[in-house]
C-alpha cells in the first residue's frame, strides 16, 4: 500500500488530506463488497461513510453492475447503447427515466447533470431566472439575492463556495459571486427578517440536514415554517437533497419528514448507484423556467447514467430501502446512544444524534475528530469527520448483524481512546 500511496502523493492534487492509518501511511482502497471495503494491504474495513452517501446500495451491487455489463455488451451485429448525443436528440433511456423519476419523486420537470454541485449551480440559475421573470418589480439585472444557511455545504464551484460561510472554502478564491445572504441554520425567524428586509430575494437554498456542517438536524417544524415563509413572500424554496435524499434519512426526500414539497430539489451522489457520476435538478413546472440555450450539459443525462439511475430508483422502491433506513437507523442510533453515553466513552461525547442512517457523533470539546477517525480505522471502521462530529452513514443495505458489528467496533475504539485520555490526565495531575 505504501508504494500506491506514494504515487497518489507524488502525482495527485493535494485537494484532500489523505486518511492515514496508525502507521502514518495513507490508506488506499482496492476493492469492496456490500458494506465492506478492503485496503491494498488486505485489511477489511466496515464502510460507515458510503462515499458521502453515494453508495447507498452498497459496493458491487449485483443489479447495478449487472446492468452496466449488459448495457455495454453489443448485440450480435455490434450495435449497442449510444454514447453522448446532442441534447436536441435525447436517448431512449433519458426519455424513460425523466418520466419515471418525475412521477416517482413527485416533480414536474427534471434537468440532468454530472454531479451534485453542477445541479446546485443549475438550481441557482433557475431561482435567479425565476426572480427576473416573476419579481421584476424588485429584481433588476444582477441584483437577485438567495438566502443560504451558515455552515452549509453545496459543493466547490465558484457559485457554491460563494454561498458558503466556511473561510477554508472561500477565502483563497475571490472574487466571489455576489448575491447570497447567509443566516443562522435552524432559525426560521432569521429567514423571516431577511425576507422582510430584502424584497429582491428570489430563493432560499437549504439542506434539510446539514451533512458537512456536522449532521446538524433542525428542530421539528423548521422546514415547514421556512416553506410557509417562502410562500408568503413569493420566494423559491429549494432543497439540496444530495446527501439526504433517496432514503438516507428514512424518507425518499428528507423534506418529507415535515410534509414539505420543495419548489426545486437537487439529487446526486447515490442517484448513480455509486458507479456513475450523475445528478439532477427537479422542479415544479412553474420553476423550470429555462428556455433553449440557457442551460445544458454535454454528458448530463447520457444513456448509461439514466439507465443506471432508473435502476437505482426501482431498487429503492422494490426493496423498501427508505423503510429499511428508518428501521436500521433507529436501531443503530439507539445502540450507539446506549453504548457511548455511559462508561469510559462518555467523557469523549457531547451528543449522538441522527435521522435514518444519517448519524453524527458530536465529540466533547478538546477531542480531536481527525485522531478519532484514525483510531476507528485501526479498529476496522472507515468513516469521515465533519468539524467536531464523526459521521456514521453506512450503505442503506446494512443488516442488523452488521449494525451490531459496527457498534462493537465504534465502542471499542472510543473506550480505548477514553482510557488513553484518562492516562494522560492522570499523568498531568501527578506532575
From TrEMBL:
Pathway: Amino-acid biosynthesis; L-proline biosynthesis; L-glutamate 5-semialdehyde from L-ornithine: step 1/1. It is an enzyme of class 2 (transferase). One of its GO terms (molecular function) is ornithine aminotransferase activity. Its cofactor is pyridoxal 5'-phosphate. Belongs to the class-III pyridoxal-phosphate-dependent aminotransferase family. It comes from Candidatus Lloydbacteria bacterium RIFCSPHIGHO2_02_FULL_50_13. Pfam families: Aminotran_3. InterPro entries: Aminotrans_3, Aminotrans_3_PPA_site, Class-III_PLP-dep_AT, PyrdxlP-dep_Trfase, PyrdxlP-dep_Trfase_major, PyrdxlP-dep_Trfase_small. This is ornithine aminotransferase. It comes from the Bacteria. Keywords: Aminotransferase, Pyridoxal phosphate, Transferase. Its EC number is 2.6.1.13.
